[in-house]
Automatic annotation (TrEMBL):
Listed Gene3D superfamilies: Ankyrin repeat-containing domain
Keyword terms: ANK repeat
UniProt-listed InterPro entries: Ankyrin_rpt (IPR002110), Ankyrin_rpt-contain_sf (IPR036770)
Pfam entry (one): Ank_2
Taxonomic source organism: Prunus yedoensis var. nudiflora
RNA-binding listed as a keyword: no
Protein name, UniProt field: Uncharacterized protein
Amino acid sequence: MEKETALHVALRYGYQRVAHLLIEVNPELTCLTNMVNESPLFLATSKDYMQTANMILEYCPESSFQGVNGVTALHAVVTHKSELAIKTLESMILENGDAIKEADAIGWTPLHYAALKGNLEATELLLLGKHDGSASYMLDKSGMSALHVAALAGHEEVMEKLIRRHPDICDLVNHKGQTALHIAVLAGQETVVE
Protein backbone atom coordinates (compact mmCIF):
# COMPACT_ATOMS: atom_id res chain seq x y z
CA MET A 1 0.00 0.00 0.00
CA GLU A 2 1.26 3.48 -0.82
CA LYS A 3 2.48 5.81 1.90
CA GLU A 4 2.90 2.83 4.21
CA THR A 5 5.64 3.33 6.75
CA ALA A 6 7.65 0.42 8.07
CA LEU A 7 5.49 0.69 11.21
CA HIS A 8 2.29 0.24 9.18
CA VAL A 9 3.77 -2.83 7.50
CA ALA A 10 4.96 -4.33 10.80
CA LEU A 11 1.51 -3.89 12.35
CA ARG A 12 -0.37 -5.09 9.28
CA TYR A 13 1.59 -8.35 9.21
CA GLY A 14 1.75 -8.93 12.96
CA TYR A 15 5.42 -8.16 13.60
CA GLN A 16 4.86 -6.55 16.98
CA ARG A 17 8.49 -6.75 18.12
CA VAL A 18 9.56 -4.92 14.99
CA ALA A 19 6.78 -2.38 15.60
CA HIS A 20 8.06 -1.81 19.16
CA LEU A 21 11.59 -1.23 17.93
CA LEU A 22 10.39 1.21 15.27
CA ILE A 23 8.35 3.16 17.84
CA GLU A 24 11.33 3.38 20.20
CA VAL A 25 13.67 4.57 17.45
CA ASN A 26 11.25 6.92 15.68
CA PRO A 27 8.09 7.79 17.68
CA GLU A 28 7.03 10.25 14.95
CA LEU A 29 6.01 7.25 12.82
CA THR A 30 2.99 6.87 15.09
CA CYS A 31 1.53 10.13 13.76
CA LEU A 32 1.61 9.18 10.08
CA THR A 33 -1.36 7.79 8.20
CA ASN A 34 -1.17 5.78 5.01
CA MET A 35 -3.00 6.37 1.71
CA VAL A 36 -6.32 5.10 3.11
CA ASN A 37 -5.96 7.13 6.33
CA GLU A 38 -4.98 4.27 8.63
CA SER A 39 -2.88 5.37 11.57
CA PRO A 40 -0.59 2.94 13.40
CA LEU A 41 -2.83 3.28 16.48
CA PHE A 42 -5.85 2.29 14.39
CA LEU A 43 -4.03 -0.77 13.02
CA ALA A 44 -2.87 -1.80 16.50
CA THR A 45 -6.31 -1.49 18.10
CA SER A 46 -8.18 -3.10 15.21
CA LYS A 47 -5.84 -6.11 15.34
CA ASP A 48 -6.07 -6.31 19.16
CA TYR A 49 -2.38 -5.49 19.63
CA MET A 50 -3.12 -3.61 22.85
CA GLN A 51 0.42 -3.76 24.20
CA THR A 52 1.58 -2.02 21.03
CA ALA A 53 -1.32 0.45 21.18
CA ASN A 54 -0.36 1.39 24.74
CA MET A 55 3.25 1.81 23.67
CA ILE A 56 2.15 4.13 20.85
CA LEU A 57 0.14 6.20 23.34
CA GLU A 58 3.05 6.26 25.80
CA TYR A 59 5.63 7.38 23.25
CA CYS A 60 3.38 9.75 21.39
CA PRO A 61 0.19 10.68 23.30
CA GLU A 62 -0.99 12.88 20.42
CA SER A 63 -0.93 9.94 17.98
CA SER A 64 -3.51 9.98 15.23
CA PHE A 65 -6.68 7.92 15.85
CA GLN A 66 -7.59 7.87 12.14
CA GLY A 67 -8.74 4.77 10.32
CA VAL A 68 -10.73 3.93 7.19
CA ASN A 69 -14.27 5.10 6.41
CA GLY A 70 -14.37 7.28 9.51
CA VAL A 71 -13.71 4.33 11.80
CA THR A 72 -11.12 5.43 14.35
CA ALA A 73 -8.86 3.62 16.80
CA LEU A 74 -11.47 4.41 19.45
CA HIS A 75 -14.15 2.59 17.41
CA ALA A 76 -11.76 -0.36 17.08
CA VAL A 77 -10.65 -0.61 20.70
CA VAL A 78 -14.21 -0.93 22.06
CA THR A 79 -14.71 -4.11 20.04
CA HIS A 80 -12.23 -5.86 22.36
CA LYS A 81 -13.06 -6.76 25.96
CA SER A 82 -9.70 -7.67 27.49
CA GLU A 83 -8.41 -5.86 30.55
CA LEU A 84 -5.63 -4.35 28.43
CA ALA A 85 -8.15 -3.15 25.84
CA ILE A 86 -10.10 -1.36 28.57
CA LYS A 87 -6.86 0.21 29.86
CA THR A 88 -6.10 1.33 26.31
CA LEU A 89 -9.59 2.80 25.98
CA GLU A 90 -9.11 4.76 29.22
CA SER A 91 -5.83 6.19 27.94
CA MET A 92 -7.37 7.11 24.61
CA ILE A 93 -10.33 8.89 26.23
CA LEU A 94 -7.96 10.84 28.49
CA GLU A 95 -5.89 11.88 25.48
CA ASN A 96 -8.75 12.69 23.10
CA GLY A 97 -12.14 12.57 24.77
CA ASP A 98 -13.77 14.37 21.85
CA ALA A 99 -13.25 11.24 19.74
CA ILE A 100 -16.15 9.67 21.66
CA LYS A 101 -18.54 11.61 19.44
CA GLU A 102 -16.81 10.87 16.11
CA ALA A 103 -19.03 8.92 13.76
CA ASP A 104 -17.93 6.59 10.99
CA ALA A 105 -19.29 6.53 7.43
CA ILE A 106 -22.61 4.99 8.54
CA GLY A 107 -22.95 7.30 11.53
CA TRP A 108 -21.80 4.88 14.22
CA THR A 109 -19.91 6.24 17.22
CA PRO A 110 -17.66 4.12 19.44
CA LEU A 111 -20.71 3.71 21.71
CA HIS A 112 -22.63 2.02 18.86
CA TYR A 113 -19.73 -0.45 18.45
CA ALA A 114 -19.52 -1.13 22.20
CA ALA A 115 -23.29 -1.75 22.24
CA LEU A 116 -23.08 -4.16 19.30
CA LYS A 117 -20.30 -6.16 20.98
CA GLY A 118 -21.98 -6.09 24.40
CA ASN A 119 -18.89 -4.47 25.87
CA LEU A 120 -20.25 -3.27 29.20
CA GLU A 121 -16.96 -1.89 30.56
CA ALA A 122 -16.35 0.12 27.40
CA THR A 123 -19.94 1.39 27.51
CA GLU A 124 -19.42 2.57 31.10
CA LEU A 125 -16.22 4.42 30.19
CA LEU A 126 -17.83 6.07 27.17
CA LEU A 127 -20.70 7.31 29.35
CA LEU A 128 -18.42 8.88 31.97
CA GLY A 129 -16.41 12.05 32.07
CA LYS A 130 -16.81 15.48 30.60
CA HIS A 131 -18.96 14.22 27.74
CA ASP A 132 -21.65 13.01 30.16
CA GLY A 133 -22.84 10.29 27.85
CA SER A 134 -24.21 12.63 25.20
CA ALA A 135 -23.13 10.05 22.61
CA SER A 136 -26.13 8.07 23.89
CA TYR A 137 -28.35 10.41 21.92
CA MET A 138 -26.39 10.24 18.67
CA LEU A 139 -28.20 8.50 15.83
CA ASP A 140 -26.64 6.78 12.86
CA LYS A 141 -27.74 7.38 9.27
CA SER A 142 -30.77 5.12 9.72
CA GLY A 143 -31.70 6.80 13.00
CA MET A 144 -30.38 4.04 15.25
CA SER A 145 -28.97 4.96 18.66
CA ALA A 146 -26.58 2.79 20.66
CA LEU A 147 -29.64 1.62 22.61
CA HIS A 148 -31.27 0.42 19.37
CA VAL A 149 -28.06 -1.47 18.51
CA ALA A 150 -27.83 -3.08 21.96
CA ALA A 151 -31.50 -4.13 21.66
CA LEU A 152 -30.91 -5.59 18.20
CA ALA A 153 -27.95 -7.62 19.51
CA GLY A 154 -29.74 -8.62 22.73
CA HIS A 155 -27.26 -7.06 25.14
CA GLU A 156 -29.45 -6.42 28.17
CA GLU A 157 -26.71 -5.19 30.51
CA VAL A 158 -25.57 -2.57 28.01
CA MET A 159 -29.19 -1.48 27.56
CA GLU A 160 -29.64 -1.19 31.32
CA LYS A 161 -26.46 0.88 31.65
CA LEU A 162 -27.56 3.26 28.86
CA ILE A 163 -31.09 3.62 30.24
CA ARG A 164 -29.89 4.16 33.83
CA ARG A 165 -27.66 6.97 32.60
CA HIS A 166 -30.26 8.56 30.31
CA PRO A 167 -33.79 7.18 30.87
CA ASP A 168 -35.25 9.34 28.10
CA ILE A 169 -33.26 7.54 25.38
CA CYS A 170 -35.99 4.89 25.47
CA ASP A 171 -38.08 7.40 23.50
CA LEU A 172 -35.58 7.77 20.64
CA VAL A 173 -36.96 6.50 17.34
CA ASN A 174 -35.17 5.50 14.17
CA HIS A 175 -36.20 6.64 10.66
CA LYS A 176 -38.99 4.04 10.68
CA GLY A 177 -40.41 5.42 13.94
CA GLN A 178 -39.18 2.43 15.95
CA THR A 179 -37.92 2.56 19.51
CA ALA A 180 -35.34 0.14 20.89
CA LEU A 181 -38.21 -2.02 22.15
CA HIS A 182 -39.58 -2.32 18.60
CA ILE A 183 -36.12 -3.35 17.40
CA ALA A 184 -35.80 -6.00 20.14
CA VAL A 185 -39.19 -7.47 19.20
CA LEU A 186 -38.37 -7.50 15.48
CA ALA A 187 -34.99 -9.14 16.21
CA GLY A 188 -36.62 -11.83 18.36
CA GLN A 189 -34.70 -10.79 21.46
CA GLU A 190 -37.19 -12.24 23.96
CA THR A 191 -35.06 -11.67 27.05
CA VAL A 192 -34.71 -7.98 26.20
CA VAL A 193 -38.46 -7.63 25.69
CA GLU A 194 -39.23 -9.31 29.03
